Amino acid sequence: MTLLRMVAIVLAGGVPAALTACSGSGAPAVAAVSTTRTVRSASSEVQSLGSYNVDWNNVVVAGVSSGADMATELSYSHSSKIKGAATFAGSPYFCAQDNAYDALYLCAGTEYGKVPDGTLESDTNNASCTYMDCVSYLKGRLAWIFSGTKDTVVAQSVAKSAQTMDSYYGISSSTNYSTAAEHGWVTPDTSNSCGALNDQYLINCSFDAEQSLLTYFFGALSARNNGTLSGSLIQFDQYPYDAYSMDTTGWIFVPANCAGGSKCKLVVALHGCLQAQYYVGTAFVTESGLNEWADTNSIIVLYPQAYPSNVNPDGCWDWWGFDGSNYAVSGGAEVSAIWSMMQQI
């Protein structure tokens, strides 16, 4: 399967109205959500999400594909607290417009178009200070954007449109549009080819993307730990932060000094469609390339986990509105769930 995000939308069904909170277009049609959910018992090793000494001047979100879009939703809706977003193959904020057709034909695919930035900016401005943090907080924030030249899932024109929208709000960007990469999260800790799709959506493009993005947000780094990590990778209970189509557990990497009370930075890392633990186990969690840098640089890494459902068969993060018309703003179900995790930490 190559167009992973598109297939999810086709199977989930359309959501043909624009976001009510931003467009004022009346009550939108929302995809039906099943009231049943697969309940899976957590193992005895699963812990409650801990509380740490987070440096809220250094909180960043990152993601790939639908995870990139969720990172953008978080960074825009909570811009007063989030320093910036790193996105691999992402689209602009509000790109899908609560509309499956726009998500499918305008926000992805190399032969498709894009929603005009002016439309997205108008909707964002309408939501500002009411349904999300005021857009004035976006000025001076940071964006790290990656889009491969061989990406067959999300067109570079879409990623570049995201940069244009960021610039409109005064967000500074660091971009990479020149790497011959397919669709995926770029990491030196996988052997998967840079230019071909694989079922983990992890690709090695012969550079350390995590060093690049973490340096951009946090400045000079201590050398990464290429040996046994001193920090702990903890599976935690996601039930207290429940949202439809989220898994029962997530993961968090906590360096030893952060566990001991030191003030630490925070990165929220969001997998893409078909990349949650349900599909790839801990591959994304252990091979993202983030933990090795986090271990030596006082960075906590949170890995929330989505889960497939009848309206979200590929276990994507909600970037088109299957979980309600307010999916992209601070009151959105998944945005709220992840934000609650961040506040707990």
Give the overall silhouette.
Answer: globular
β-strand number? 10
Low-confidence region ranges: 1-42
- The fraction of residues assigned to DSSP E strands is 15-25%
Fraction of residues in helix: 25-40%
N→C terminal distance: 36 Å
> How many helices in DSSP terms?
12
Overall number of domains:
1
The radius of gyration over CA amounts to 18 Å
Largest sheet: 8 strands, mixed
Order of strands, widest sheet? 4-3-2-1-9-10-8-7
> What would you call the structural class?
alpha/beta
Helix-strand pattern, N to C?
A: HHEHEHHEHEEEHEEHEHHHEH
Instruction: Estimate the mean pLDDT confidence.
Output: 88
Question: Please, could you describe this protein's structure?
Answer:
- With 345 residues, this protein is an alpha/beta fold.
- It has one domain.
- Helices cover 28% and strands 16% of the residues.
- The protein has an 8-stranded mixed β-sheet, sandwiched between helices.
Short structural description:
The protein is an alpha/beta fold.
Keywords:
single chain; 345 residues; alpha/beta; eight-stranded mixed sheet; two-stranded parallel ribbon; 12 helices; 10 strands; disordered N terminus
Chain-wise SSE layout:
Blueprint: H1 4-12, H2 20-23, E1 54-64, H3 66-77, E2 84-88, H4 100-105, H5 117-127, E3 142-146, H6 156-168, E4 172-176, E5 185-186, E6 202-203, H7 209-218, E7 232-237, E8 249-254, H8 256-259, E9 264-270, H9 277-280, H10 283-287, H11 290-294, E10 299-303, H12 333-344
